[in-house]
Design brief:
alpha+beta, 60s Ribosomal Protein L30, Chain: A, 3 domains, four-stranded mixed beta sheet, 45% helix, globular
């Protein structure tokens, strides 16, 4: 959905910034219709298209709005038309749902911020694993088995096929591996971007085959209202279980500012440098008081060393 629906979101946002009228906004949606594309096939081999298609969605949305601003004509009825987006993905769509609570409820306010750089379906399990580790002083070497309870849709993304999920070979594999993220949380007490350097860590590799993902009826019943998870650890001849209904980062269980900054720094410091990343974080958190976003955007652009050919 990020690569497909996201393209429409980007087009709508850009059209708003450009101050386009209703006809032109519709034109931008009709233009980006021909460019919205994405696939979960990256799961087959941990392909980099996972990131590529998300970036292209943003770029295509901006390009569509820009083209229409300059007079380009986009397709009419982009969403609800006979060959529109909805019918391309659903045999019997209900377009009126797109207008439900329009102008009264804003889904942006229900958006979660992911504390861990991995598939959201594993986050409740990470929360549970970190909790069990802290509460019972669990160590990787004493763990006999681990079960991660997931909803059906979560099983499809991070639980199956079991053999592949237990043997992640690259970063994208790890991001979509329930066993890997749980192993990191239990063995290291941490799950961050730096965790992907541990794909071949002995403690992680020893724990991976002990982690099994399964469809949990209680967790399935919570979905889609909550992306819940349950972890059961067998160690010391005992069984330790922890269920997390609302994972960290949801509006009802949001990150503290320190946690939010920590997640951002874990991703941005390596690209921007710690000092510049901290300034960018300050600017983002104060965006409601900014006159415009030009200074923020300048901070967000990494300084790239360039040279002329032949130098």
């Amino acid at each position: 959905p990020t690569a497909t629906c996201g393209a429409f979101g980007a087009a709508a946002a850009a059209a708003r910034v450009f101050g386009l009228d209703a006809e032109s906004v519709a034109g931008a949606m009709g233009t980006v219709l021909s460019q919205c594309a994405g696939s979960l096939q990256f799961l087959a081999n941990g392909a980099w298209t996972k990131r590529f298609q998300v970036g292209w969605a943003a770029m295509n949305g901006l390009a569509a709005a820009t083209l229409v601003r300059e007079g380009f004509k986009g397709a009419a009825q982009a969403l609800e038309g006979r060959h529109g987006f909805m019918r391309a993905y659903a045999p019997d769509p209900t377009p009126e749902r797109a207008l439900l609570h329009l102008g009264r409820e804003f889904e942006l306010m229900a958006t979660a911020v992911k504390p861990y750089p991995s598939c959201r379906y594993g986050h409740a399990g990470i929360d549970a694993s970190l909790g069990l580790r802290a509460e019972h002083g669990l160590h990787a070497g004493e763990i006999e088995s681990v079960t991660l309870g997931l909803p059906k849709s979560g099983m499809l993304l991070i639980g199956e096929p079991a053999e592949k999920k237990a043997d992640p070979r690259n970063v994208v594999d790890g991001q979509f591996s329930g066993p890997f993220v749980i192993a990191c949380a239990l063995a290291k007490g941490h799950m961050g971007w730096d965790s992907y350097a541990l794909l071949d860590d002995p403690d992680i590799r020893a724990l991976l085959p002990k982690v099994r993902c399964e469809l949990d009826p209680e967790i399935e019943a919570e979905f889609p209202a909550n992306m819940s998870g349950k972890v059961t650890v067998r160690a010391r001849g005992q069984t330790f279980t922890k269920a997390v209904t609302v994972p960290k980062g949801e509006p009802a269980n949001f990150l503290t500012e320190a946690e939010l900054r920590g997640k951002f720094a874990g991703l941005a410091d390596a690209v921007l440098g710690a000092e510049r990343a901290a300034r960018l974080a300050d600017a983002v958190l104060a965006i409601d008081r900014a006159q415009d976003v030009s200074s923020l955007m300048r901070l967000a652009a990494p300084t790239i060393a360039t040279r002329l050919a032949g130098e």
